[in-house]
Write a structure and sequence with these properties.
- The protein is an alpha+beta fold.
- It is built from 13 helices and 19 strands.
- It folds into four domains: 96 residues, Rossmann fold (3-Layer(aba) Sandwich); 72 residues, 2-Layer Sandwich (Dna Ligase, domain 1); 127 residues, D-amino Acid Aminotransferase, Chain A, domain 1 (2-Layer Sandwich); 98 residues, ATP-grasp fold, B domain (D-amino Acid Aminotransferase, Chain A, domain 1, 2-Layer Sandwich), CATH 3.30.470.
- It is 31% helix and 26% strand.
- The strands form four sheets. Strands 13-12-9-10-11-14-18-16 form an eight-stranded antiparallel β-sheet, sandwiched between helices.
- The protein is globular.
- The structure holds adenosine-5'-triphosphate and magnesium ion (MG).
Length: 428
Amino acid sequence: MTLPGVLLLDAASPDAGALATAAAARGHQVHAATTAASYADYGPELKRLLAGRVVTAFTRPGRALDEVAAYARQHDVGAVLTVNEYLTELAAHLCAELGVPGNDPGRARTARDKAAMAEAFTAARVHAPHTVLARDDAELRTALADPRVGFPCVIKPLSAAGSAGVTVVTAPGGATEAADTARSAAGMYSRGGDPRVLVQAYAAGTEYSVESLTQGSATTHLAVTRKQVTGGAKRVETGHSLPVFLPPAVEAAVYREVEAAIGAAGIRNGASHTEVIVGGDGRCVVIEIGARLAAGQIGVLIQHSLGIDVWAALLDVALGHPPAITPTARGYATVRFVTSPHAGRLVSLRGFPRTGPGVPFVRWRAAIGGLVHEPDANGHRLGAFVVTGTEAAEVEERADALLRGIRVEVDPHPNPRPAPDSLTRANR
Ligand SMILES: Nc1ncnc2c1ncn2[C@@H]1O[C@H](COP(=O)(O)OP(=O)(O)OP(=O)(O)O)[C@@H](O)[C@H]1O
Ligand SMILES: [Mg+2]
């Protein structure tokens, strides 16, 4: 019997590579829908593993849908998956078009457009921070004057990700600049130019995400993840730890909100990643939902702590088979992200961990000699490593110790000799 083909929408990330490897290991032909630029970044192993590819332009979703669907029909594709935040809507439409298990295409925008998400959450009575849409300065002033918003508030783009363009604003003075920052944070495949921004009430508390898998509209929560997030105006996720066991009443409240959010986003067959903030009183608000597996190595954490092969499970759900998601281990895992102390040129890196016992995954992304940013979005993180073990406290201590041992040297003045023109200006 020939197995159905598996199509990945963009296969550039390590998680997509893991999915492709899992599918190929099971004997599926693996295909990728990609852009010319993204394909150039695929490593040799991934290129060897792919049975074929269709190059399309994700900037034009209508055309991409037609081109990828035509390709999928020619190649007997029976499962469509993506771990790319920006392609979850296209994935839902493709699944519907091809008649394979996927999410509700009529609601798939909800997980990609935070204005649509806020509306859907209100309609489904999901507890979420009060959110106002502002198109220009006058609407921004009105939003800031809304007592349901107040200060601090959060100004964010509609459809970016990775915390890009998100600012926590503490006083009216910072709002215009924050709105401009949000407007300039274009998504991966968007052309930008959307004047709308979201102004949202600030939710105080501890940030968690819930990693879930839904099949036939029935949801299983694989894990609750605690986030380490920087404070201040720009929030960057610097660590994730799981599994976290919340007090039963809090867990029940969190799951209730998450399940309502999953329903609102039309997630019927696939993974989801729901970000929540739990206040000191145990009340939970949903910050956002993604119709995909969590990024930031959370799949690796689930695999190593709970013994669940998330990639195999995702594949099973996409094929319409029952997934194996009962934990086979009772461990604990955490990831730490390395950031630059300030902007400049990366001079050297010392002490970055290597894989070994209890350190199953490391990834360094920044080139020595390249420019690095002051971290104000997840994309500015330089590297990551995962620590696993049986005791939560030990795992956290080891991860912190490893992080302290890393030396990142950054030259804050990458051009020591200013150009003559700037010298003249400086002397004026
Ligand atoms: N209403 C809020 N109250 C408190 N903190 C918030 C709020 N909205 C966002 N944040 C903080 O800003 C971060 C980024 O916001 P958000 O998750 O909406 O953006 P994003 O770009 O979709 O993020 P990502 O793709 O990294 O999940 C959150 O993880 C949280 O720390
Ligand atoms: Mg988020």
